[in-house]
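Lab manual, section 2.4: Encoding a predicted structure.

Procedure: take the sequence of the chain (365 residues), apply the prediction step described in section 2.3, and record the output as structure tokens. A sample record is shown.
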Amino acid sequence: MRHILLLITVLLLAACTKVTPETPDAVITNATGDVSIDDQPAFAGKTLLTGARIVTGANGEATITFLKGSVLRLEPNSTITILELSNQTIHINQSNGRSWNRITRFGKPADYTLETPYAVATVRGTAFGVDVDEDHAEIKVTHGSVATETEDGENETVDAGEQLDADEDGAVVEALEEDTWIDEQEDADEEFIEELAEEYIEEHQDEYADAGEESGATPEQLEDWVEQWGEGDVDEPVPEDAEDIEHLEELEAEEDLDEAEDAIEDAVDDGAIGDANDDDAIEHDDADDAEPEETDAHETDDAVSTADDPTVQEAPDAADHVDEPADAPTADDAVSAPHAPGAIGSADAAGMTFDAMVCGRTIGF
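Recorded output:
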């Protein structure tokens, strides 16, 4: 009888206990073309475990989401192996090919390490690309910073806007080269983070409703704040007061300024805006340097003779006909070649320079 009562108690406890399924630590969220996991065809929704080896063929691409908050996108002809996977650690080996890695604060924060034959990158809250071929590796950082260690034990910190080139002879850190692939990855990151922010707010509705009342933030500003937190730009996931929202607006203004500057530089590179080396500017300089034309002697004599002739009216003083100076053109009057929204541009008569006013800052080219 006692055993029967114990069994009934256990069954009742089990029935009252809500079992919440664990989120997979790593899952394939997209697989197109030739993609395999441990020599088996990959598919979206496939859970990955420690030791899994993912390979993409010539037309294969794969996206892996870790701990519901970080993503790795694998390009064609690439191979990675998951060396360690837990709530605290993600450790990956990339033997060849190219990957993009975006680590956020969403999900379960973890130390993220990606090793190549020539360098090891360890990060938390950053964005970087890794390109590996048979004789060297490149680590390109666009957000945050990456601590690296080369195979000879040399340590380098690669900050946003920099890249590390490593081979068997060592490593060097230099300015990040322009790459349209990186631009595409950043666009994909923006969508990824927006989705995570929406989910996070949904899971903490009451908390963000209170935060909106206390700080005066709109729903859009709250979502922007959460995105900034997920990217590592603010420290707390919830704004506390109006000062936090002012700080958010400053961050967004800086981002808008950076985007406008990039757009103007692109316009100069594309030739939509003249620079100091254009042909028109050079021709104008040549015209300024040209020798003055010689005056005909007869013209000079005629000018002298008319000076003594009383029938000839004296030419009015040029000063009598000087118009009042026009008001200096304002920023609103400026007309420029196509440029970024929020930017005002003007070019001088020689086409030698270009000035752009963006968010109160003047940028010269």
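Check your result against the sample. Confidence is low (pLDDT under 50) at residues 5-21, 303-307, 318-322, 331-354.
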